[in-house]
Amino acid sequence: MSAQVFVAASAGPDEVLGKAQLIFGAFESGAVRLRVAELSRRSWVPKASAYRLAQELVQWGLLERLSRTAATRQS
User: What is the pLDDT of residues 13-48, one digit of tens each?
Assistant: First the structure.
């Protein structure tokens, strides 16, 4: 049996992982805290999707929710 090899690749922006990648990209400018509206604007992910993805990323420990409307990227 041969071992499978996986390589990192970018997901398309219409896929869930692609949108998550865009969400993380919103923090690349050095921003530490972003409200959902700003997260949506910087990532080009619709606000409702950005909100849902941010909630899931918080559950996974990849984002931290600071208040009702702000999130910060975990380092």
Answer: 678 888 999 999 999 888 888 999 999 999 999 999
